[in-house]
């Protein structure tokens, strides 16, 4: 109880800090830590910093603020809140989101919400560029000369459910410069998991992600255990969505799943050959 109370106090202090995040962003180069705790982020988003390890993850991928970055599948923009301000003054941020041409109502609403989020805060997100990704027809998601780095967080299982994972990875390859980096974070299944099992549970094996990436032309560089969680047994009734932040099983055993925390995740780094 005391630990939870202190966490709430710390988060509230960060979110309610007196400085204007946008003014500070314009007047000085804020560190990643300052951006993580910025007043442009909700207490709920800040609370997930501890589970998602964004600083360590971005350092592992080799991100620097002067790069041209593509965030693949930003969805609601949790990582966008970090990446777009960080890249704003010296680099370039591209968000490769759903296509407005989609017939999927969830995807359309998700894209509209993301666009509204960015346009509502032009001092923070005004230099971010939105592109649309819908292989195989819409794949131009970066600058003509290619991006330095492309990052995707917990999306591979979604592409698998559409039968398009290979097309997505091929699009990433096309939009990176020679020597460009692809960073992948994904819920991790045992390497023995079958493809349909991965789709049903949301957990994907490292071996399968490496297979897709290498088939697209990437070279594997390294893996990290930054986002590992040994408490995750990966046998939950609603798959990965049983765990926080989704809690798809509702109140059934919620304390148990909260104690496990967010999923066990792989963190993989690939390179487009020179």
Please outline the helices and strands.
Layout: H1 2-15, H2 21-27, H3 32-36, H4 43-47, H5 49-52, H6 54-61, E1 68-72, H7 80-87, E2 92-97, H8 105-119, H9 122-125, E3 129-132, E4 147-153, H10 156-161, H11 165-175, E5 176-189, H12 195-201, E6 204-205, H13 206-216, E7 219-224, H14 254-260, E8 265-271
Parallel strand pairs: 1-2, 1-4, 2-3, 4-5, 5-6
Antiparallel strand pairs: 5-8, 7-8
Explain this structure to me?
This protein has 274 residues and is α/β, with parallel strands linked by helices. The chain has 2 domains: 1-47, no CATH class; 49-271, Vaccinia Virus protein VP39 (Rossmann fold). Helices cover 41% and strands 19% of the residues. It contains 14 helices and 8 strands. β5 (176-189), α12 (195-201) and β6 form a beta-alpha-beta unit. The N and C termini lie far apart (53 Å). Mean pLDDT is 92; it is low at 1-19.
Q: Can you give keywords for this protein?
A:
single chain; alpha/beta; disordered N terminus; 2 domains; 8-stranded mixed beta sheet; 274 residues
Summarize the structure.
The chain is α/β, with parallel strands linked by helices. Helix content is 41%, strand content 19%. It contains 14 helices and eight strands.
Class by alpha and beta content: alpha/beta
Low-pLDDT stretches are 1-19
For this structure, what is the CATH homologous superfamily of the largest domain? Vaccinia Virus protein VP39
| Rough outline | globular
Binned, the helix content reads 40-55%
Q: Give the end-to-end Cα distance, rounded to a whole number of Å.
A: 53 Å
């Amino acid at each position: 109880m005391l630990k939870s109370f202190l966490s709430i106090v710390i988060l509230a202090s960060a979110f309610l800090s007196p400085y204007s995040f946008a003014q500070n962003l314009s007047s000085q180069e804020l560190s990643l830590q300052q951006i993580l705790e910025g007043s442009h982020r909700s207490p709920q988003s800040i609370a997930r910093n501890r589970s998602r390890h964004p600083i360590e993850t971005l350092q592992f991928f080799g991100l620097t603020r002067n790069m041209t970055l593509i965030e693949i599948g930003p969805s609601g923009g949790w990582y966008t809140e970090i990446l777009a301000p960080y890249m704003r003054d010296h680099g370039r941020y591209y968000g490769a989101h759903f296509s407005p041409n989609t017939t999927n109502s969830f995807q359309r609403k998700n894209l509209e919400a993301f666009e509204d989020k960015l346009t509502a805060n032009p001092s923070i997100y005004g230099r971010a560029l939105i592109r649309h990704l819908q292989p195989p027809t819409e794949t131009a998601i970066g600058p003509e000369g290619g991006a330095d780095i492309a990052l995707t967080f917990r999306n591979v299982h979604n592409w698998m459910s559409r039968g398009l994972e290979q097309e997505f990875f091929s699009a990433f390859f096309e939009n990176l410069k020679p020597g460009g980096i692809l960073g992948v974070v994904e819920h991790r299944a045992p390497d023995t998991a079958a493809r349909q099992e991965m789709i049903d549970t949301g957990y994907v094996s490292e071996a399968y992600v490496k297979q897709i990436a290498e088939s697209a032309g990437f070279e594997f560089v390294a893996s990290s255990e930054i986002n590992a969680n040994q408490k995750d047994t990966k046998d939950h009734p609603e798959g990965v969505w049983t765990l926080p932040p989704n809690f798809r099983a509702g109140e059934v055993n919620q304390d148990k799943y909260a104690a496990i925390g967010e999923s066990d995740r792989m963190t993989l780094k690939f390179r487009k050959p020179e």
